[in-house]
Design goal:
Elements lengths: L1 H28 L4 H6 L5 H11 L5 H13 L13 H36 L4 H15 L2 H15 L15 H35 L2 H8 L4 H12 L1 H17 L2 H6 L5 H11 L2 H29 L1 H7 L1
Family: Belongs to the binding-protein-dependent transport system permease family.
Subcellular location: Cell membrane
Membrane topology: Multi-pass membrane protein
Length: about 325
């Protein structure tokens, strides 16, 4: 088991390095000079050259990457050109909004999708199954930002029950903060709930056709007992895969939703950095998003080993 975990962890580190190098290279070759954007069109060549030297833009690409990688391992992600503060602090500050939003949305997605998928599979071909399939397909097809606008019109403008945007900060109390995140979380969760419902239903139906399920029914176990004690636990592997992917999507894919609701999260930071051509912030945020995907896939793989002991023996 230790050998397996060591091999997986080494693969994780190598993947993170390869991804960061790819992103660093892509960011370096993008058109536009951050120094020229910072100084404006009236800057003299001497001033432009001096600022490029200060930013380290006149150094070879691999040397810049090596320094950035060394700094990343020590927690130094560089200095923002626009804000003039360490990027690591910016990411942590914005993560305090994006991470709770993603967790809120994933819990909503699970609360909606798993019971709906299980019930649809248990009543396969019935009216409930057809309605669940239609609803899940509709939630997948409707864009999240459009759902966000509808939620604002209904709950903020018309009913006046929820704030239309902004974030009061966690220091002003848990309830106001959660209230500000409620509508964005719903807008993020609904499309993901549709995907998770379909995956849960399909996984449940596949397991229901297994021999051990027929054996359990032949032994006289009730339908409910077979469903929750035998079918649901064995259908968790594909559901866990989707949950891992959904969480990373909710963190990295919140750019539109955070801009609709004017939330100071990582998605809005990435959008602002793109507009301001703040390469170091863009680069670090994109690497963070990519690293989160890699780490979540690693954790999902480990969860497979915890759920199904047969996989451990196969890997070893």
């Amino acid at each position: 088991m230790i050998v397996l975990l060591s091999r997986r962890f080494a693969g994780l580190i190598l993947t993170l390095i390869a991804v960061s190098l790819l992103i660093f290279t892509v960011m370096a070759v993008l058109p536009g000079d951050p120094a020229a954007i910072t100084l404006g069109t009236s800057a003299t060549p001497e001033t432009l050259a001096a600022l490029r030297h200060t930013m380290g833009l006149d150094q070879p690409l691999m040397l810049r990457y090596g320094r950035w990688l060394l700094g990343a391992f020590t927690g130094d992600l560089g200095q923002s050109y626009t804000y003039g503060v360490p990027v690591g602090g910016l990411i942590l500050e914005r993560l305090a909004v994006t991470l709770p939003l993603a967790v809120f949305a994933i819990f909503l997605s699970i609360a909606i999708a798993v019971p709906l998928g299980v019930a649809a599979a248990a009543r396969r071909g019935g009216v409930f199954d057809i309605l669940a399939t239609i609803l899940s397909q509709m939630s997948i097809a409707v864009p999240g930002f459009w759902v966000a606008l509808l939620l604002i019109i209904l709950f903020s403008t018309t009913l006046g029950l929820m704030p239309a945007g902004g974030f009061p900060g966690w220091g002003n109390g848990l309830l106001p903060a959660l209230k500000a995140l409620a509508l964005p979380a719903i807008a993020l969760a609904l499309p993901q709930a549709g995907v998770l419902t379909r995956v849960t239903r399909t996984a449940m139906i596949d397991v229901m056709h297994e021999d051990f399920v027929r054996t359990a029914r032949a032994k006289g176990l009730s339908r409910r007992s077979v469903l929750w004690n035998h079918v649901v636990p064995n259908a968790l592997v594909p559901v866990l895969t989707i949950l891992g992917l959904q969480f990373t999507f909710l963190v990295a894919g919140a750019v539109l939703i955070e801009n609709v609701f004017n939330l100071p999260g990582l998605g809005r930071l990435a959008y602002q950095a793109l507009n301001q051509r703040d390469i170091i912030v863009m680069q670090d945020v994109v690497v963070f998003f990519a690293g989160l995907v890699v780490v979540m896939n690693f954790l999902v793989d480990l969860s497979y080993l915890a759920i199904d002991p047969r996989l451990r023996g196969r890997e070893l």
